[in-house]
Amino acid sequence: MSSELLWVLTLLLIAIVLFTTNKVRMDVVALLLIITFVLSGTLTLSEATVGFSDPNVLLIAALFVIGEGLVRTGVAYQMGDWLVRVAGNSETKMLVWLMVSVAGLGAFMSSTGVVAIFIPVVLSVAARMKTSPGRLMMPLGFAGLISGMMTLVATPPNMIVNSELVREGLRGFDFFSITPIGILVLMAGLVYMLVARRWLGGANHQTEDKRYHRTFRDLIRDYKLSGRARRFTIRQGSPLVGHTLDELGLRACYGANVIGIERWRKFRRVMVAATGDMELQGQDVLLVDMSDSDVDLREFCREQQLEPMVLRGEYFSEHSRHVGMAEVSVLPESELLGQSLRDMKFRTRYGLNVIGIRRGGKALEGKLVDEPLLLGDTLLLIGDWKLIHALKTKTPDFIVLNLPIEVESAAPAASQAPHALFCLALMVAMMLTNEIPNFIAALIACLLMGKFRCIDMESAYRSIHWPSIILIVGMMPFALALQKTGGIDLIVRGLMDIAGNMGPRVMLVCLFVLCAIIGLFISNTATAVLMAPIAIAAANEMAVSPLPFAMIIGVAASAAFMTPVSSPVNTLILGPGGYRFADFVKLGVPFTLIVMGISVAIIPILFPF
Length: 609
Description:
By secondary structure, the protein is an alpha+beta fold.
């Protein structure tokens, strides 16, 4: 083993340790690897940054935009509502339709995004059926991962494997090449989950919240907000005029938390977000949460030159197109646990206001701004719908648990839903022709979504999950570094010594097992980047077609069922499902073996050696 190869393997080991411990963000680790490769002379600058120009990386970014268009037009949430209507009160029907719906929708948009959309649906249905969310949350996660086996563009590992084939001068896969495997795995998953859900008894925790189609009024009641809000008009000459909310510090001085601002625009009042940098104007109407305040309201109004106004019971519902509410929970691995809202500067950071906290099923009272957040707390947020939706992609710290029924009227481009479906269908049709590159087809669909106002530029850029993009870009040089230093040849020789004389099917088993083991420690995307060139090299060494070897890597990378850190999908369902690490092992290991058996049996039939 040369010193150069030892250096590359050492870097790989360090990266795996950092990914596993999660002490440093994965995208930061990826960027540090690029820097290290260049400075050490292992790779040239052009070699280390090859991922930034890879068309499949650009395709992944474009697909994030397509998915956001489906969310903004309400298509994704309408599927959740349809699911509730079809399943009724039957848990079995819900499980089957849930897995089919998630696998179908995830075939064309990010599986992580699909699962995030359906988590509130599962919580709502579980509450209505008076059953544990854990009995449905694991099927949701499994279906999200299986959706990656439905189409070529369903998940980054598929596109990475296809890109490696093209880079080697070989013909890549078609759009639906992987679909027969995905359908078989989905059918097996349905049967498996109908039986295995009984093993989820350890995650059984009833929820007292009636989340099914909850309204603003329900949330106000559950968080005991009635009587806490006030409306004030800012008179001309008020000392508040011309200052931002952060400058005024009304919450710190008076316990007055401004959660909304009505402002005259085009001869009518509209609600605008109460962000920290919002500068107040004369005649603005402030919606203020006074629950933390012990000041005399008359004195407060006199000092700040405010005029009290009537606040009717239907106020929030009347403004639901502009003001949103959402229940969120802090993820278990978040660094925000233990911090108070004041410590984390919540409104300044996210542009939203926390108006309620529930702990152990009970609403907390008193001053919430200094209350440290604990694992299991649910927070009620209020603010702009766009910022609420952005919270799902802007931070890895929170998951949106529940959106009230008013969200249906708040989809910013709901009227453009038919156009969004047309753009999606057109993209798939162009990809099926094999005459137009996949990235160009996705880019055309993105531009058409912009033309039809399904999405705007701001939300398009915000929808791209940049940490995932940077992770892929940073891991791509590893494959090239292993190839240059002889690492791939060394791994292939090891595989040949183990299974070279036993036939290509045994080699498929070895590749699947190796991919699954690596996937225990790093993401499935990074696993595919490392394993794709190894699989193709093994096929060349055995003088057989590389297509079945490449396909087994794509399937194995998506089969990240065994641990909660193998995929973002698993991490998302960990908290809401009430799962432990052992629950993923208990259900994931047997099903991974089932997927391996299906893959090894069917792939050589679809792609002969």
